[in-house]
Specification:
One of its GO terms (molecular function) is oxidoreductase activity. By secondary structure, the chain is α+β, with helices and mostly antiparallel strands. It has 3 helices and 4 strands, in the order E-H-E-E-H-H-E. The longest helix is centred in the first third of the chain and has 18 residues. The protein is globular.
Length: 99
């Protein structure tokens, strides 16, 4: 499994538009990406323009399918004017603990 943490900062006043884009994206991820095991958006309680996506994929193929999907590409275009800077993305290997 592969985990992804993507951190973004949203422009002031663009928070509700950003959340709407992510809400539509999240629905499509759940409907069309069986290899996606978790797709959540979180927000800092102290810095309300700071968000983190927490994602979990079955394998590298599932992660690639997400990145190449039309719904993900369209959401990137929609987010472009809403973000305050480039996203910071971290890819992590999941450690299996006797599961």
């Amino acid at each position: 499994m592969i985990a992804v943490i993507a951190e973004v900062r949203v422009k002031d006043g663009a928070e509700s538009d950003f959340v709407a884009v992510v809400e539509a994206l999240s629905r499509r991820v759940h409907e069309h990406e069986p290899g996606n095991l978790m797709y959540r958006l979180t927000r800092s309680p102290s810095e309300t323009r700071q968000y983190k996506f927490i994602e979990l994929y079955a394998d590298g193929a599932a992660l690639r399918a997400h990145g190449e999907s039309p719904h993900f590409r369209a959401s990137l275009d929609s987010m472009e004017g809403l973000l305050d800077g480039a996203p910071r993305i971290e890819y992590l290997d999941v450690v299996h603990l006797g599961e």
